[in-house]
Write a structure and sequence with these properties.
With 207 residues, this protein is an alpha+beta fold. The chain is 30% helix and 25% strand. The protein is built from 5 helices and 12 strands. The strands form 4 sheets. Strands 4-7-8-9 form a 4-stranded mixed sheet. The longest helix is centred in the middle third of the chain and has 18 residues. The protein starts with a strand and ends in a 12-residue tail after the last strand.
């Protein structure tokens, strides 16, 4: 039988990272986990995620997955982040066992992710974007006047007529989802941005 309990702390080195997607800080236990978490922030299919979500106990063994990822489709899965050089037969067998129990009891598999699955270049670029982004959107910026579809370079030029730090403000608008784009691809001046009508309230801006 498998039991689950909320996991608060496992006594390991903790990296705290603010998650715009979750609107809170998440605690991570390695640089590789931090890189994976930044990748989750970039994935438009991910609704939310939790780090070290719960501990599973089965047949005298305990195991805590690194992440629980929930998608907009309603589907969810557990993720184990591990260096590929440290994955041996015994480790793979344990993960397979707990994944089978997890599917049986929660319907959620456990998926192994290594450094080979993580785009470290883009996750570092996203971290830089978070660092550069403006803290808030200025009150005097009329959000309903934002152009509907344009490149990042064009948005920066448009904002330059209205703000002293147009790139920082453009990043904040993207992070706050005023514009949609696939952040799994590294941003450039040619990146296409499309106004998020749900965030902008549909047709309410035109009224």
């Amino acid at each position: 039988m498998t039991h689950y309990k909320a996991n608060k702390h496992r006594g390991r080195h903790i990296i705290r990272m603010y998650s715009p997607k979750n609107q809170c800080a998440v605690k991570l236990e390695s640089a590789l986990e931090a890189a994976f978490a930044r990748g989750l922030e970039l994935d438009p299919n991910v609704k939310s995620y939790a780090s070290q979500p719960e501990t599973m106990s089965c047949d005298g063994q305990s195991y805590t997955p690194d992440f629980l990822v929930v998608y907009h489709s309603g589907r969810g899965k557990y993720i184990e982040v591990h260096q590929s050089s440290r994955v041996d037969g015994e480790y793979a067998q344990k993960l397979k066992k707990f994944s089978a129990y997890s599917v049986k009891t929660t319907g959620r598999p456990i998926e192994l992710v290594t450094e080979r699955h993580i785009n470290l270049g883009c996750t570092r670029a996203y971290e830089q974007m978070l660092f550069i982004a403006a803290d808030v959107i200025p009150d005097d910026l009329l959000l309903c006047d934002l152009p509907h579809s344009l490149t990042l370079g064009e948005l920066v030029s448009w904002l330059a007529e209205r703000d002293d730090a147009p790139l920082s403000l453009a990043y904040r608008l993207i992070i706050d989802a005023w514009y949609d784009t696939d952040l799994r691809n590294c941003l450039s001046s040619e990146t296409i941005l499309t106004a998020n009508q749900k965030v902008r309230g549909g047709d309410s801006c035109s009224g």
